[in-house]
Amino acid sequence: MKLYYSPGACSLSPHIALREAELSFELVRVDLKTKVTESGEDFRKVNPDGYVPCLVLDDGRTLTEGPAIVQYVADQVPGKRLAPANGTFERYQLQQWLNFISTEIHKSYSPLFNPSASEDHKAWARQVLHARLGRVAAQLASGEYLVGGQFSVADIYLFVTLSWASYVGVDLAPWPALQHFSARVGQRPAVQAALRAEGLVQG
Protein backbone atom coordinates (compact mmCIF):
# COMPACT_ATOMS: atom_id res chain seq x y z
CA MET A 1 0.00 0.00 0.00
CA LYS A 2 0.96 3.62 -0.52
CA LEU A 3 -0.18 6.48 1.67
CA TYR A 4 0.05 9.91 0.09
CA TYR A 5 0.53 12.47 2.85
CA SER A 6 1.63 15.98 3.79
CA PRO A 7 3.44 16.42 7.13
CA GLY A 8 1.11 17.26 10.00
CA ALA A 9 -2.00 17.36 7.80
CA CYS A 10 -5.06 15.20 8.36
CA SER A 11 -3.20 12.39 6.55
CA LEU A 12 -1.34 11.92 9.84
CA SER A 13 -4.44 10.10 11.11
CA PRO A 14 -4.32 7.15 8.64
CA HIS A 15 -0.52 7.21 8.91
CA ILE A 16 -0.79 6.55 12.65
CA ALA A 17 -3.53 3.97 12.04
CA LEU A 18 -1.31 2.04 9.62
CA ARG A 19 1.49 1.96 12.20
CA GLU A 20 -0.91 0.92 14.98
CA ALA A 21 -2.13 -1.86 12.70
CA GLU A 22 1.47 -2.87 11.92
CA LEU A 23 0.66 -3.07 8.21
CA SER A 24 3.27 -2.72 5.49
CA PHE A 25 3.02 0.55 3.56
CA GLU A 26 5.01 3.17 1.70
CA LEU A 27 4.82 6.88 2.49
CA VAL A 28 4.67 9.30 -0.45
CA ARG A 29 4.98 12.97 0.38
CA VAL A 30 2.85 15.47 -1.54
CA ASP A 31 3.41 19.20 -1.96
CA LEU A 32 -0.15 20.45 -1.57
CA LYS A 33 0.61 23.76 -3.27
CA THR A 34 2.07 22.32 -6.45
CA LYS A 35 0.18 18.97 -6.33
CA VAL A 36 3.44 17.17 -7.08
CA THR A 37 4.83 14.21 -5.13
CA GLU A 38 8.40 13.97 -3.88
CA SER A 39 9.25 11.84 -6.94
CA GLY A 40 7.82 14.43 -9.36
CA GLU A 41 4.52 12.64 -10.00
CA ASP A 42 1.38 14.68 -10.71
CA PHE A 43 -0.66 13.87 -7.61
CA ARG A 44 -3.93 14.76 -9.35
CA LYS A 45 -3.48 11.64 -11.49
CA VAL A 46 -3.70 9.66 -8.24
CA ASN A 47 -6.39 11.73 -6.54
CA PRO A 48 -8.18 14.18 -8.85
CA ASP A 49 -9.28 16.18 -5.80
CA GLY A 50 -5.62 17.00 -5.16
CA TYR A 51 -5.66 16.62 -1.40
CA VAL A 52 -4.44 14.09 1.13
CA PRO A 53 -4.87 11.49 2.48
CA CYS A 54 -5.04 9.04 -0.36
CA LEU A 55 -4.40 5.33 0.12
CA VAL A 56 -3.49 3.23 -2.91
CA LEU A 57 -3.96 -0.48 -2.38
CA ASP A 58 -1.64 -3.13 -3.77
CA ASP A 59 -4.17 -3.91 -6.51
CA GLY A 60 -4.25 -0.26 -7.62
CA ARG A 61 -7.59 0.71 -6.12
CA THR A 62 -7.66 3.97 -4.17
CA LEU A 63 -9.40 5.27 -1.09
CA THR A 64 -9.67 8.91 -0.11
CA GLU A 65 -11.19 10.68 2.91
CA GLY A 66 -9.61 9.99 6.27
CA PRO A 67 -12.62 8.46 8.07
CA ALA A 68 -13.03 5.88 5.29
CA ILE A 69 -9.32 5.07 5.15
CA VAL A 70 -8.90 4.55 8.90
CA GLN A 71 -11.88 2.19 9.03
CA TYR A 72 -10.47 0.20 6.12
CA VAL A 73 -7.13 -0.04 7.91
CA ALA A 74 -8.78 -1.11 11.17
CA ASP A 75 -10.78 -3.82 9.43
CA GLN A 76 -7.63 -5.39 7.97
CA VAL A 77 -6.48 -6.35 11.47
CA PRO A 78 -9.56 -6.90 13.65
CA GLY A 79 -7.40 -8.40 16.37
CA LYS A 80 -5.87 -4.96 17.00
CA ARG A 81 -9.33 -3.67 17.97
CA LEU A 82 -8.83 -0.30 16.31
CA ALA A 83 -12.53 -0.31 15.42
CA PRO A 84 -15.50 -2.20 16.87
CA ALA A 85 -16.86 -5.03 14.75
CA ASN A 86 -19.08 -4.13 11.82
CA GLY A 87 -22.77 -4.33 12.65
CA THR A 88 -22.35 -3.58 16.35
CA PHE A 89 -23.81 -0.48 17.99
CA GLU A 90 -20.28 0.51 19.00
CA ARG A 91 -19.27 0.59 15.31
CA TYR A 92 -22.00 3.14 14.65
CA GLN A 93 -20.75 5.13 17.63
CA LEU A 94 -17.30 5.08 16.06
CA GLN A 95 -18.76 6.39 12.80
CA GLN A 96 -20.66 9.04 14.75
CA TRP A 97 -17.43 10.33 16.27
CA LEU A 98 -15.48 10.14 13.02
CA ASN A 99 -18.18 12.23 11.34
CA PHE A 100 -18.32 14.68 14.23
CA ILE A 101 -14.55 15.17 14.20
CA SER A 102 -14.54 15.55 10.41
CA THR A 103 -17.42 17.98 10.00
CA GLU A 104 -17.50 19.84 13.30
CA ILE A 105 -13.86 19.99 14.43
CA HIS A 106 -11.64 19.46 11.39
CA LYS A 107 -13.60 21.82 9.17
CA SER A 108 -13.80 24.46 11.90
CA TYR A 109 -10.02 24.83 11.66
CA SER A 110 -10.13 25.71 7.96
CA PRO A 111 -10.56 29.50 8.33
CA LEU A 112 -7.80 29.57 10.96
CA PHE A 113 -5.30 28.12 8.48
CA ASN A 114 -6.49 30.37 5.66
CA PRO A 115 -4.39 33.56 5.42
CA SER A 116 -7.08 35.27 3.37
CA ALA A 117 -9.86 34.66 5.92
CA SER A 118 -11.06 37.80 7.68
CA GLU A 119 -10.56 38.29 11.42
CA ASP A 120 -14.34 38.16 11.87
CA HIS A 121 -14.45 34.80 10.09
CA LYS A 122 -11.61 33.50 12.24
CA ALA A 123 -13.32 34.72 15.43
CA TRP A 124 -16.49 32.91 14.38
CA ALA A 125 -14.49 29.73 13.67
CA ARG A 126 -12.90 29.88 17.13
CA GLN A 127 -16.34 30.18 18.74
CA VAL A 128 -17.58 27.15 16.84
CA LEU A 129 -14.43 25.19 17.62
CA HIS A 130 -14.68 26.12 21.31
CA ALA A 131 -18.19 24.65 21.49
CA ARG A 132 -17.24 21.48 19.61
CA LEU A 133 -14.14 20.87 21.72
CA GLY A 134 -16.28 21.26 24.82
CA ARG A 135 -18.52 18.48 23.54
CA VAL A 136 -15.58 16.12 23.08
CA ALA A 137 -14.08 17.10 26.43
CA ALA A 138 -17.33 16.18 28.16
CA GLN A 139 -17.19 12.73 26.54
CA LEU A 140 -13.57 12.19 27.59
CA ALA A 141 -14.22 13.37 31.14
CA SER A 142 -16.00 10.06 31.76
CA GLY A 143 -13.52 7.77 30.02
CA GLU A 144 -10.06 7.57 28.47
CA TYR A 145 -11.29 7.12 24.90
CA LEU A 146 -14.26 8.04 22.73
CA VAL A 147 -15.85 4.62 22.20
CA GLY A 148 -16.37 2.02 24.89
CA GLY A 149 -13.13 2.66 26.76
CA GLN A 150 -11.10 1.17 23.89
CA PHE A 151 -8.50 3.09 21.87
CA SER A 152 -9.76 3.39 18.29
CA VAL A 153 -9.20 5.17 15.00
CA ALA A 154 -11.59 7.89 16.21
CA ASP A 155 -9.12 8.71 18.97
CA ILE A 156 -6.33 8.91 16.40
CA TYR A 157 -8.28 11.41 14.31
CA LEU A 158 -9.15 13.47 17.37
CA PHE A 159 -5.51 13.52 18.47
CA VAL A 160 -4.44 14.87 15.08
CA THR A 161 -7.02 17.67 15.08
CA LEU A 162 -6.10 18.63 18.65
CA SER A 163 -2.45 18.83 17.63
CA TRP A 164 -3.32 21.75 15.35
CA ALA A 165 -4.60 23.93 18.19
CA SER A 166 -1.27 25.46 19.16
CA TYR A 167 -0.56 26.47 15.55
CA VAL A 168 -3.71 28.61 15.30
CA GLY A 169 -3.84 30.10 18.77
CA VAL A 170 -6.46 27.81 20.27
CA ASP A 171 -5.72 27.21 23.95
CA LEU A 172 -6.72 23.76 25.26
CA ALA A 173 -6.24 24.83 28.89
CA PRO A 174 -10.00 25.12 29.53
CA TRP A 175 -10.31 21.38 28.88
CA PRO A 176 -7.93 19.31 31.05
CA ALA A 177 -9.52 16.15 29.67
CA LEU A 178 -8.34 17.08 26.17
CA GLN A 179 -4.85 17.93 27.39
CA HIS A 180 -4.56 14.62 29.23
CA PHE A 181 -5.93 12.75 26.22
CA SER A 182 -3.42 14.37 23.84
CA ALA A 183 -0.52 13.67 26.16
CA ARG A 184 -1.57 10.04 26.63
CA VAL A 185 -2.14 9.28 22.95
CA GLY A 186 0.98 11.23 21.97
CA GLN A 187 3.16 8.81 23.90
CA ARG A 188 1.99 5.72 22.03
CA PRO A 189 4.91 4.16 20.11
CA ALA A 190 3.02 4.17 16.79
CA VAL A 191 2.18 7.85 17.21
CA GLN A 192 5.77 8.74 18.01
CA ALA A 193 6.99 6.72 15.01
CA ALA A 194 4.57 8.53 12.67
CA LEU A 195 5.57 11.94 14.02
CA ARG A 196 9.25 11.14 13.52
CA ALA A 197 8.64 9.82 10.00
CA GLU A 198 6.90 13.08 9.05
CA GLY A 199 9.64 15.19 10.61
CA LEU A 200 7.32 16.60 13.26
CA VAL A 201 9.49 15.52 16.20
CA GLN A 202 13.18 14.79 16.49
CA GLY A 203 14.74 11.50 17.48
UniProtKB/TrEMBL annotation:
KW Transferase (keyword) present = yes
Provide this UniProt record's keywords sorted from A to Z.
Transferase
Q: Does the keyword Transferase apply?
A: yes
Pfam families cross-referenced by the UniProt entry: GST_C_2, GST_N_2
Output the superkingdom of the source species.
Bacteria
**This enzyme's EC code(s):** 2.5.1.18
- Which Gene3D superfamilies does the UniProt entry name for this protein? 1.20.1050.10, Glutaredoxin
NCBIfam families the UniProt entry points to: PRK10542.1
Name this protein carries in UniProt: Glutathione S-transferase GST-6.0
Q: Which species is this record about? A: Tepidimonas aquatica
Q: Which gene encodes it?
A: gstB_2
